[in-house]
Amino acid sequence: MPAPVDMDVLHIILTATSLLCVFSYEITVNSFDLLPCKEDDKVCVTGSGDCVQPPPPLAQKNFNMSCYFKVSLESVTCEWSEKQFSHTAASVSLIFNRQSFRPVKHCPALFVPAERLMITARVRSSSVELWSQPHYVFVYKAVKPAAPELTVIGSTEDSVSVGWSSSGDTRCQLRYRAHSSETWSQSPDFVFTPQNQKHIYSINGLQPFTFYTATVSCSRTVGIWSNWSAGVSVRTLDRAPSKYPQPCYRLDKTDSGGRLHIMWKALDPHDAGGHILGYQVSYRRVMGQQLQDRSVVNVTDEICVLTVDEGTWRVSVAAFNTAGVGPSVNLSVDTRRHRPLSSVRNMWVSCSVPVGTGLWVQWEIPAQPVTHFDVWWRLETNVSSSCWSTVNSSTSSTLIQDVDPMESYLISVVPVYKQQCGPPQSVSASLRLGALMEPTKLKVTGVNQTAVTVMWAWQRRSGPVRVDGYRVTLRSDSYEQTQPLWPDQRQHTFINLTADTEYCLVLWADNSSTHMISVRTEFDQFPVVATAMPLLLLAATVFIVSILSRTMYKGFFYPRVSSPQDSTAGQWLMDSKHQAPVTYSFKQNSTKQNILDIQDFQDVDLLEVKSTIVVEPCCPDPLDRLVIKLSDLRLDAEHDGPAPSTPQQFQCGPSDDEGGTAHHTEQGSQEQAHDAVKRCFGGVADAQITCEGEYVVNASYQERTVVSVTCDTDYLPNVAALT
Length: 723
Hints:
By secondary structure, the chain is mainly beta. The strands form twelve sheets. Strands 2, 3, 6, 7, 8 and 9 form a six-stranded antiparallel sheet that branches. Strands 28, 29, 31, 32, 33 and 34 form a six-stranded antiparallel sheet that branches. Strands 12, 13, 14, 16 and 17 form a five-stranded antiparallel sheet that branches. Helices cover 7% and strands 42% of the residues. It folds into six domains: 23-138, Immunoglobulin-like; 151-235, Immunoglobulin-like (Sandwich), CATH 2.60.40.10; 247-334, Immunoglobulin-like (Sandwich), CATH 2.60.40.10; 345-435, Immunoglobulin-like, CATH 2.60.40.10; 437-520, Immunoglobulin-like; 605-715, no CATH class. It is built from four helices and 47 strands.
């Protein structure tokens, strides 16, 4: 039996990785650790306990084992995977058999390139023992060179030069990747390296100002590839930006001019030269055809705020880095002709379906014309880590991918029309919870017969439950109206409601109610007014008709007596300057009296006296004093009395029986109303005329009497005399 093997000398590298109870093993055996077996002179082992007869081939398992030989260390390393044993409870060893019939005289000399070996793995535990199927190895073809040492030679804007050396003629392959990527890129061809010579290789087509990691692996013409060398890190140089930003502006008007907000999208790494230190914003005022002195501002963010006076301004934006300043773009802004754009409405952020693939951003397209939408997002804890994407004007949603599920982001949407942009609308969100905002303080602010107005406020949500949307519902037994809630809204009015009705206002988070308010609409007075108004109109009509009828009937039955005092003519006549003294005579009596006396018009007492006057032809007065006109005489055809045969004289005036005085008292005047006064005419009379005199006596002034005479003619029977 061979002597026991010192386990401290045996160098075994054992790596176990548990993944669904699968363990990976890697064992390295040096040549000086090999021991011969007395039972078989072609077998070398690492411990005397392995010098036993292996089980039959049917009991052996295929471990899918691979082995390689390291010339510099004169060692053999084998690797395989096993599902049944835990590495903490198993003992692993390798058994080496020479394929030729020659016995092994010295086991440490077994590992030579010309040797052909049959390697078997043995895994033992307290209850189970496994043997692998033999793995055949030609040591010359299983040689694995040592990993070369890679060094950095230099770098440019888009390339990196590295070098390495090899102890023998080898073929090598290089791989590299950017620090921000997990994918390796390999050189397209093998690189042949002569023995003891240093080879330099240049990696081209890289991004400027980018960190890269490179490694190299080599192998002989035949054999196994070496392990990848330790990676080296190298950074390419800066390149001046090759493209200008695409800015837009927004103006907030002030009394003196305005605040000019300039925003732009960060350049792509290829266009930015790989690295942007900042942006140079220059602006100057245009006065007629001349430009004033230029002012320059350097910023590191993608936004710049300028305070400008009223007028026309020319603004230019350019990116710069350590290699220089890139091309610039110009903006022309006239603060007097600025027409602001409105922001997007109804913006919301939710987790995409399936959950975890990204953040779904949606909004409502504004009514104003829009060229495109800029969507940008950044970590709430890192202002400089912003990313942008552009969405066409007909799209109202986008998906943001490659976000960290453990971080929260501030997402903004900006409408852009040519070079003018509207105010950004922003919402905080995370991949686990969606939008980090919730409505609160829901209350009713206005109620009438047909409408209810509600208000709410928005706050940051701290709950661990993901919510895809909020809405508020107003409902009754026979009515329901729902309104989605968006962060840009603070109130809503429900219309077309029923008066004097009880409603319930409910705030929903997805399908769960979070707040509830009872509200009742006001009583509607219109039906009452509509019913009472015809009755009131009917009563008013009856009242007006009665008043008009009373006035009309009163005027008909009780006519109004005119008053001289109220007339314009009467007031003119009663003026004192129109009262002049005059003298007149009546029946040879002379009296001096004024034309007008105001008292005569203040106290009026009229009396009409009718008298019958008989005119006879006994008056000696001449005919020219006769006051009766011939046209006033009326012929009576029925009169058949005899005509007088002789001419008679007419007597004019009052008769002697009545007295000659012209002064009558009121009592005398009344007596004269019953007396007949006869007068006679001189000359031939064909008819007898009877006249009635109407005396108008002024009771307040009895010296004046007004006489009106009405005469009737009685024709005489002598008709021949008339012809």
